[in-house]
Structure formats: C-alpha cells, structure tokens
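User: I'm curious whether this sequence folds into something compact or stays loose and floppy. Could you predict its structure so I can see for myself?
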Amino acid sequence: MKSFYLTDTGRVRSHNEDSVTIVKNASGEHLMIVADGMGGHRAGEIASSMVVTHMGSRFSELSTIGSKLDASSWLNENIGEINTNIIKYAEENPEATGLGTTVVMALLTKDFLIFANIGDSSGFVLKNSKLHKITKDHTLVNLLVESGELSAEEAENHPKKNVLMRALGAAEKQELDIFDVDPNVDAVLLCSDGLTNMLTKEQIEKVLIDEELNEEGKLIKLIKKCNARGGTDNITVAYLVKEGGIEWYKRGKK
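Assistant: Here's the prediction. I'll summarize afterward.
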C-alpha cells in the first residue's frame, strides 16, 4: 500500500477545523479518516481531532480488526463513544456551543473494504481510471434530491446546500452509514466538502489518473485547484493506492 494525506486551510477561513490520518495496525490493515469540524472558538478543530485521535490510536493498537461484522461493530462502538465525548465537552465548555464534526472512514483489509460516514465528507474508489462515489451526504439538499423534490442540477447551487442533517455532537445517538465495497479497486480517496464543493467528480478523477503525478503531487494539485476557485473552506484529502492497482505500477518507483 502507498498512502498520503494533506490538509489546507483554504483562502477564506482563518484556521483549519479539518483533521485527517491514515493508520495501519499489526496485521497491515489500514484505516483512513477525514473529519470536518464545526463550532466557534476553534471548537470544530477540537471535535474533528477527537475523532482522528481516538479512532487512530484505538485502531493502531489492534492486532487485527477481525471479520467484516467485527469491523462494523468496532467502528460504531467507537464512534458512539466519541459522540458522547463531544457532547460532554460542549456541555462543560459553554464557548464551544455548536461543537460537532462530520466523519468519513475507509477500512481496508486483505479480505474486505468498508466505508463509513456521518455528514457530508465523502468517500470514493478509483477503479479502471474511473472515480466512483461510495458514501451518501447527510444534507438537507441530498435528502430532497433522493425524495425527488429537487433535481441534481437544482441541488448544485441550492442556498441550503451545506445544511447538515447528521453530525457527531448533534444528538445523543449517532450511527454510521456503512457501505460494503468490492475490495478489488485501484485506490481509495476520502475528502472533506472543501474539495467536493469546489471540484466536480470528473475534475477530481482527471487529476487522479494523471500519469505524470505521484500520490503527493495529485493531492497538492487538487488543493491548488480548489484554492484557485476561491478556497472557500478547509480542504482535506486522504489517498491510498492498493498494491497491484494500476497507479501502483505507473508510479511505483516513487
């Protein structure tokens, strides 16, 4: 496996409330995490770092995640614990009212690949030079699109595009949406909405299949493109290329 992640404040925000990591346990299994925090007085930064620190440290201590069912249970149990901790922090720190965060994760073992998310940070797979979105955004607009009340075109520039229906810290009970994905993919990409609000899936795909760039160069180019378009939010990307994937062979000498 080859992996890289990058986060950038963007051109408008005064500080970065995103957090990101890719960790590996003793069995060589990988957990990728992107969290996009929200709340005043840097509270969003606290919430997103709570997710990444907790999940990352717990995963790295495991000898193995076990079966697919074990993995799903482990993810939900730990996210439930984090959600409780975020709510408790907000109660104990009045200046952190509105504290919360989105989260998207991908867990890859030799046997399976699962994605999990709450909020509007996104997970994708790259296969045969095509980028496919796996996760579904928990936003008001996406809910209206799924119910047929809005078209995808109308949703694109809707004034309530970023209104979240679910986020860690927003309610006492939060459960991940979990997606079971064919592990025979070339690469996995996670990102905050600072990327997807600036670039289309096709624009992201074009950068990822550029044979002249290595993994780090691809992520740098994605962030530069977002900032060139205004950089209205923090931008975070995490990218993992599977051994045997097409990108591995093309850029394997990095």
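Summary: The radius of gyration is 17 Å. The first strand starts at residue 2 and ends at 8.
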